[in-house]
Structure prediction request, 131 residues.
Amino acid sequence: MTTEMMSLLTFAMTCLIVLLVQATIAMKAYGISYFMSNRDEAPAEESPLAQRFKRIVSNNIETGFIFVALVLVAAQTEVSNGLTVWGSIVFAGARILYPVIYAAGIPVVRTLVWDTGIVALFVIFTGIVTA
Prediction:
């Protein structure tokens, strides 16, 4: 398995863990009956941590599909070079750190980690198109 694919697998498992944490927080905060319902009506107030995890999941979706596309293009075109390898490692690492830092409420560092992940996507893209 290439480093890029291993990074994709790591990102996928990170997303799964974040989803499970989000669900656990929601269940504890709103009770099992709300969690098992259709959730047609939102709870009166969500905790800051629950709100953060919703945004973390949303952000994983927003950036994740780009990462998936880039890694799959690299695999399909058999491109693997320093830029695609390191871009993938840095992106996956940033996506591991991001939920921890965001959940802890560290605003400036959170933004820098997010920016690092975005730059890594551009690095992967550059590695593909310059191969």
The chain has a mean pLDDT of 93.
